[in-house]
């Protein structure tokens, strides 16, 4: 069995690639980072170090790597004979990997089993986005692509911090991981991946994760940055930072319980588990790494505006989430292009214009007045 995974970075190697390896797949990593691909190609194995309670080291073998920028034909050939294609490249990069996946699908032999395509990104319905880009790239042959693949959305959860440059291709991760995949597209013939969970309704899992893990993690990063902290665990040890994170996640939990009819007790337990994960001092994660790309994180369907807008539409409290947005717009890191752009927008636009441009909310949305007010104070 063979899986092609786009994105040979830390998440690709330390999470999805690891689970695919443990499921018995030969993993072919595809990436445009030439130095990284060279390092993977020259190695027979790499280690994934799980840190925290119950942590252990796992060794990955049986992999290959392809530089997709210079060896697209080899990548097309591997996709044409693969069982699974996965991605961990970031939602904004999906449109760039779609054309080669389309080519690989069109090169598959007649009668072979459909290719399982799953985007493993921190975004809602990322596989749907990837599928649309693949169909577009296939043009008049879009129907062939549709018939030759099964597109399944996923929810993924594992904290993979920035790594020590001296670690080579080894990866340090937290012990917790969750890969949830919608089962319906496979019509009873889902691939065997023991480390993944197949569910009938993925929506609650996606929003539970995005609006708890990602919202909380980003809140800790922005509040920690504002307080002068460097590491996430250090920031989370600050009572003021932790207080804001806890208040924000109580509001997102209220939405999740109301919208998806989750058991409040189970959601409380899930939230508390997430807070313990943020406090893991063995993870060398930084507030700058977690906070990068603030414009994406403040967009309409993302971790702050997504839940806050839905709460406002239901007439529920949003004040703590709005406070977190106010902290987020103070993220000023010259090395992060989106941070630089955001600060320029704050200087160039009125608060009303900034809110509409960045969050995608119209002036008549019930959340907009509170956002305009918080932007006005910065």
Helical content (DSSP H or I, runs of 4+):
40-55%
Lateral strand order in the biggest sheet: 5-2-1-6-7-8
CATH topology of the largest domain: Rossmann fold
In terms of per-residue confidence, which ranges show pLDDT below 50 for 5 or more consecutive residues?
none
The name of the CATH architecture of the largest domain is 3-Layer(aba) Sandwich
The global form is: globular
Q: Helix segment count?
A: 17
Quick gist of this model?
The protein has 378 residues and is an alpha/beta fold. The protein has 17 helices and 12 strands.
SSE blueprint and pairings:
Layout: E1 2-6, H1 10-22, E2 26-31, H2 34-41, E3 45-51, E4 57-61, E5 63-67, H3 72-80, E6 84-87, H4 94-106, E7 115-119, H5 126-138, H6 142-147, E8 149-151, E9 154-157, E10 171-174, E11 178-182, E12 197-199, H7 203-226, H8 232-236, H9 239-260, H10 264-278, H11 287-291, H12 294-297, H13 305-313, H14 319-328, H15 337-348, H16 351-359, H17 368-376
Parallel strand pairs: 1-2, 1-6, 2-5, 3-10, 6-7, 7-8, 11-12
Antiparallel strand pairs: 3-4, 9-11
Helix pairs in contact: 3-4, 4-5, 7-9, 7-10, 7-14, 9-10, 9-13, 9-14, 14-17, 16-17
GO biological process, one term: mannitol catabolic process
Domain Mannitol dehydrogenase C-terminal: 202-343
EC number: 1.1.1.17
């Amino acid at each position: 069995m063979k899986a092609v995974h786009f994105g040979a970075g830390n998440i690709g190697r330390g999470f999805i690639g690891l689970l695919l390896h443990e499921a018995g797949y030969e993993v072919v990593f595809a990436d445009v980072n030439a130095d990284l691909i060279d390092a993977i190609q020259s190695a027979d194995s790499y280690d994934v170090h799980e840190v925290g309670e119950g942590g252990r080291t796992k060794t990955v073998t049986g992999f290959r790597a392809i530089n997709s920028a210079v060896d697209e034909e080899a990548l097309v050939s591997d996709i044409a004979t693969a069982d699974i294609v996965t991605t961990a490249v970031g939602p904004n990069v999906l449109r760039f990997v779609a054309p080669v996946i389309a080519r690989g699908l069109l090169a598959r032999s007649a009668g072979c089993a459909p290719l399982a395509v799953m985007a493993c990104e921190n975004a809602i319905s990322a596989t749907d986005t990837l599928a649309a880009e693949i169909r577009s790239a296939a043009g008049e042959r879009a129907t062939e692509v549709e018939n030759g693949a099964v597109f399944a959305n996923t929810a993924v959860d594992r904290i993979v911090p920035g790594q020590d440059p001296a670690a080579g291709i080894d990866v340090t991760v937290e012990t917790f991981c969750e890969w949830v995949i919608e089962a319906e597209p496979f019509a009873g013939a889902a691939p065997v991946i023991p480390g993944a969970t197949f569910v009938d309704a993925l929506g609650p899992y996606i929003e539970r994760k995005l609006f708890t893990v990602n919202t909380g993690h980003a809140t800790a990063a922005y509040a920690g940055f504002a307080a002068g902290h460097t590491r996430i665990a250090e920031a989370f040890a600050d009572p003021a930072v932790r207080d804001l994170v806890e208040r924000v996640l109580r509001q997102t939990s209220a939405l999740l319980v109301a919208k998806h009819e989750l058991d409040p007790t189970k959601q409380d337990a899930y939230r508390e588990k997430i807070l313990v994960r943020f406090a893991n001092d063995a993870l060398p994660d930084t507030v700058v790494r977690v906070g990068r790309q603030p414009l994406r994180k403040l967009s309409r369907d993302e971790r702050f505006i997504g839940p806050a807008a839905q709460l406002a539409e239901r007439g529920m409290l949003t004040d703590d989430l709005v406070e977190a947005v106010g902290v987020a717009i103070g993220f000023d890191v010259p090395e992060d292009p989106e941070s630089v752009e955001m600060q320029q927008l704050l200087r160039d636009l009125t608060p009303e214009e900034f809110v509409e441009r960045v969050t995608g909310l119209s002036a008549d949305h019930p959340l907009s007045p509170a956002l305009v007010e918080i932007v006005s104070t910065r």
